[in-house]
Amino acid sequence: DKHKTGVYALLTGHTKEVNAVKFYTLPFSYGGSRHFLLTGSADRTIRVWRRQDNKSNSTSPGMTSIARPTFTHVTTLHGHESSINCIAVARGSELFVSGAADGTVRVWRLKDVKGENGAAANMIIDCQLVQTITLKPRFFALALAMRTLGGQKEKEKEYEKNIEAAPPLVLAVGGTRTTIQLYVMQGGVEDVQEEPRQFELKASLTGHEAWVRSLAFTDMDVERTQSQAQSQLQDFFLASASQDKYIRLWHVHAGDDVAAVRAKVDEDGMVLGGSLEQALSNKAHEFKAGGSKYSVTFEALLFGHEDWIYTVAWNSDLKNPKLLSASADNSLVIWESDPVSGVWYAAARMGEISAQKGSTTATGSIGGFWMGLWSPRGDTVVSLGRTGAWRLWKYEGETDLWSQDIGLTGHVRAVNGIEWEPTSGGYLLSTSSDQTTRLHARWERGGDSDDGSCYSWHEFSRPQIHGYDLNCIASLGPWRFVSGADEKLLRVFNQTKAIANLLENLTGFTGGAKPADMPEAANIPVLGLSNKAADDDINADVANEGEGDDSQSTPTAAAPLTPHASALHLPQPPLEDHLSKYTLWPEHEKLYGHGYEISALATSHDATLIATACKASSLDHAVIRLYDAAATTWHEIRPPLAAHSLTITCLRFSADDEHLLSVGRDRQWAVWRRDDKESGDGKRGVFKLLCANPRGHARMILSASWAPILDSSRPRVFATAGRDKTVKLWMQEKGQDQEESFICKASVSFSNPVTAIDFLPVVVGGGQLYLAVGLDTGQISIHAFAIEGLGEVGEAMALPELECPSKAVYAAGVGGRSTGKGNKWMAGMSSPWRVRIVLCGFSGL
């Protein structure tokens, strides 16, 4: 995508992790789309999605109109008894296969359904289970590869002429054993009166010494004999990748003669680094299919990876086949065959060369590549790693080099908290169970849209890479934030000059005057746990250390690498290499006091107070602790605030910082009022309980939010959301005894538990409040309420299903900058594995 817009749709339906995805094209259709997407999941089902091509998609201002296909669910296949691991398809065949952890491979036939008028029936697909292969000796299939035998283009033309004809197929199965099994299905016309065609085991390929993780067939451009040319037969390769760190190539030859081994042996009897006896087992496995004879022989052993190899993939160039491999050693390798000698060699290597084996992401390591893919034209490769980043490399013909370009980044586990930059919404912070905090901002640049501008959202910094799952985050102005994790303390971080300059140059965010003591950069010391500030001149000091000393230096531990601020002088958003190494924020302070994991966190709008809570099952720990962020000592303001009996799930300061709202698992909400004057000792941030409702909801309360204040004379309003599937709006009132309390004025029911809510921080049109609501099922909607009486105004605006997550929305944050027209606000919604930013329009702003 040249516009770098990233994810544009989410397909929801599976109830557990999706383990396999595969695009598939039917060889024949009655006029409907022939293009499908097959997805296999740990929920033991396969879902079939049909592609629909659209002329154009509605886009936001600054975004060029792009025609993007959509996929609609048409059927769900059941049959496997355990998690589905892999799916394989073959061009020119209506069959596809799936492998699962139940020890079976299942073969499915997908057919288009003819409608009454002869055209394709409306989104109806006929899918039948053709065969169940029980793998013997028993093992789990982790990799499948399937293709037609013979010339594929010729077979496709033959199939179009006679849709009842089917080409012969070869299926390779690998998994939790060291062997690769080859199955063959004979071609021909299916006769309903006879037994249906079945896959039969024809060969077992040996050689690997560990589990087989990936298999891939390709076409191979070879010199054909006259008889081969007449029969339209064609040779091809099978590549297999294993946890033994090796790739094996197998030559499938069509014809009566057996293909000769092309691997070259050097003077020492070595074949590509392995001994001839161990590396080459050149037994020819022969079988017949479609009236022709085939043989499978070992072709080459490729080595160079230093860890498990997860995937192999061939490019689409038949005349110059290249193989892409992705490994846990943090590298991608492109393999080519020398046209003269026939020896396969590593033509390009991308990724990371790490001197520290077993490095984690906390030290800047990418943690291995899980997947490698070619683009259709073969000039781009992408990889997916454990940090959640899709890395992208493009081939430059002028330099004959592969250069890294902007990819996609994101969290890999549940996103538990988000926070907009408070002064102007210049960026969005998110924190996750993947133990990272990330900063997202909008990259603005010239483009070809209607208004001459273009923008896209990217990750600009990874301030915190932690050793605990992160639960919550809150901002302390444009240059500082505090986060809480599955530990008993909180950590405060300061932004660096390098990140501030990067945001200013690429996003236009300035944030006002920068602090005089802003550090240049940050790093994690060797054997250290906390980010430390590091200036550019430290390297020079280390280099000059010991000059003038005639004595021999004593060997010491290597000094930690200090990232330079110059590494972030970039014309575009940082790449994954920059994010994982050069964008940390130094840790400024630790806040102690809680006895269990941090569960909730909030900061006052003037950035002087921090309110925190931890997981609790007793009154002693279900307290709110306040910290003075304006003091240099960061001391706790005692005593802690006690009202709840179980874990506090959400804390919120009112817009004027005069009230603090807390809700918890005990179904109770409590409102605290600031009472600094009565403290008598000049302390800031003294709060006293104003009122509480021990039965605010029928079940636990999960989220809360204060409504914006139109003027100081109006009563305060807040909303609460609970697992009882309701959102309640509460308004401040005074009773006959002049005691203040909050009365429920409105209640909105939903079909599922409500997990996150947040008010738009301004009143719209002089009298409307807008509330964003996220449900346990991932549905997101925006509701309008009249400020007078809190009655709901109009119908709720629901986000399209393609833009909603598949699981619970854990946090909601409405804010951000307007788009220049004055009526746009961005709403950030966090959910498992993703942060969704939605552009909303509100008339009357």
Question: Which tags fit this structure?
Answer:
58 strands, mainly beta, single chain, elongated, 845 residues, 5-stranded antiparallel sheet, 5% helix
User: Any idea what the shape is?
Assistant: elongated
- Major beta sheet, specifics? 5 strands, antiparallel
Radius of gyration: 31 Å
Query: How far apart are the first and last residues' alpha carbons, in Å?
Result: 34 Å
Low-confidence stretches: 58-64, 221-232, 261-279, 357-364, 536-562
Extended strand count: 58
Main sheet strand line-up: 15-16-17-21-20
Main location: cytoplasm
Family: Belongs to the WD repeat ELP2 family.
WD repeats: 11-59, 77-111, 237-260, 302-336, 641-672
InterPro entries: Elp2, WD40/YVTN_repeat-like_dom_sf, WD40_PAC1, WD40_repeat_dom_sf, WD40_rpt
Quick gist of this model?
This protein is mainly beta. This is Elongator complex protein 2.
